[in-house]
């Protein structure tokens, strides 16, 4: 993938997945605007990219406000002459079960993930349409947004909304040749280390340098952050110009396309349904095979 003519902005790229995205884009030749609220972390990423011969600058600002979005786009234009790729990765967690989640917990997560994706994508779309050379918006979602996850009302709702925005913007920006896709990543991060089935395996691999076992990379689709970054590079490239409106999963050895929500079972009643009729027919009708919910529990092989 040759991205030497591309300019990219990656939000939340001071560490973890975001850092892997920024570094992978830079190695493919793109100039990168690195963003984080941690100045030291952002500077370290920029320093590493430049030392490898790449081009990068840092913008230290919280994602969410429109002012930050405008600053990120302006920096890309001023430093590198334009904007071709936006990766909206910035996020935070404030996990609580529903009855313990405060307004502040909910608003903080929605503001960074959902509003931050919106404000940054809006600013990028304005610039890309003005340039007239197309572009790519890569919106980072999560399995939690596709299936729900215990204790993550705010996060799951935001990540589900991000996929919905990708599908909407893919329609709105098609005439401008701007592709919009959601990425559903699974990777070994500080968060996944807290999962009992994953933590010891990840820590052992980090300690010894051994590869993750096949059950983790294939069955669970979980690998390194670098495994996920390859999809970001592809979506930023001209090879992906016809790919838009999709939710694409990646992790470990697994690459997957998530389906769009659709009706699974349908039944009709002349004149409409009464509550009694729904109750009578539910278990043998549309409710005969209810959908599952929640991220499936890890299933490591028996020792």
Question: What would you say about this model in short?
Answer:
With 303 residues, the protein is α/β, with parallel strands linked by helices. The chain has one domain: Rossmann fold (3-Layer(aba) Sandwich). 43% of the residues lie in helices and 15% in strands.
Write out the CATH superfamily name.
NAD(P)-binding Rossmann-like Domain
Q: Give the CA-CA distance, first to last residue.
A: 41 Å
Strand content: 5-15%
Helix content: 40-55%
CATH class: Alpha Beta
Envelope shape: globular
How many strands appear in the DSSP assignment? 8
Please identify, by name, the CATH architecture. 3-Layer(aba) Sandwich
Taking all residues together, what is the mean pLDDT? 94
Radius of gyration over alpha carbons? 21 Å
SSE pattern, N- to C-terminal: EHEHEHEHEHHEHHHEEH
Structural class: alpha/beta
Features:
Rossmann fold; 303 residues; 10 helices; 8-stranded mixed β-sheet; alpha/beta
Structure, described:
This protein has 303 residues and is of the alpha/beta class. The chain has a single domain (7-187, 224-258), classed as Rossmann fold (3-Layer(aba) Sandwich), CATH 3.40.50. Helices cover 43% and strands 15% of the residues. The chain is built from 10 helices and 8 strands. It has helices at residues 16-27, 39-51, 66-80, 103-131, 143-147, 153-172, 199-208, 214-219, 225-236, 275-281; strands spanning 7-10, 31-36, 55-60, 85-88, 135-140, 178-185, 247-251, 254-258. It has an 8-stranded mixed sheet, sandwiched between helices. Helix 4 runs parallel beside helix 6. The protein starts with 6 loop residues before the first strand and ends in a 22-residue tail after the last helix.
């Amino acid at each position: 993938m040759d991205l030497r003519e591309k300019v990219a902005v990656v939000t939340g790229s001071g560490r973890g997945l975001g850092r892997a995205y920024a570094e992978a884009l830079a190695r493919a030749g793109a100039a990168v605007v690195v963003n984080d609220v941690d100045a030291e972390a952002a500077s370290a990423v920029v320093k590493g990219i430049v030392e490898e011969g790449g081009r990068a600058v840092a913008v230290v600002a919280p994602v969410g406000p429109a002012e930050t979005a405008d600053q990120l786009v302006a920096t890309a234009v001023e430093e590198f002459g334009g904007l071709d790729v936006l990766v909206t990765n910035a996020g935070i967690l404030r996990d609580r079960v529903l009855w313990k989640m405060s307004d502040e917990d909910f608003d903080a997560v929605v503001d960074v993930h959902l509003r931050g994706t919106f404000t940054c994508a809006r600013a990028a779309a304005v610039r890309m349409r003005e340039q007239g050379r197309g572009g790519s918006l890569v919106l980072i979602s999560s399995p939690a947004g596709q299936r729900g996850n215990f204790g993550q009302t705010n996060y799951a709702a935001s990540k589900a909304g991000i996929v919905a925005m990708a599908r909407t913007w893919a329609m709105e920006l098609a005439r401008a040749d701007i592709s919009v896709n959601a990425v559903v990543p699974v990777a070994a991060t500080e968060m996944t280390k807290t999962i009992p089935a994953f933590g010891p395996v990840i820590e052992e691999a980090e300690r010894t340098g051994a590869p993750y076992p096949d059950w983790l990379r294939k069955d669970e689709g979980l690998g390194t952050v670098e495994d996920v970054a390859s999809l970001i590079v592809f979506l930023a490239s001209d090879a992906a110009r016809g790919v838009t409106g999709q939710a694409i999963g990646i992790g470990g050895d697994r690459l997957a396309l998530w389906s769009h929500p659709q009706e699974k079972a349908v039944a009709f009643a002349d004149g409409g349904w009464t509550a009694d009729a729904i109750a009578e027919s539910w278990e043998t009708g549309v409710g005969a095979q209810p959908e599952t919910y929640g991220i499936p529990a890890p299933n490591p092989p028996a020792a």
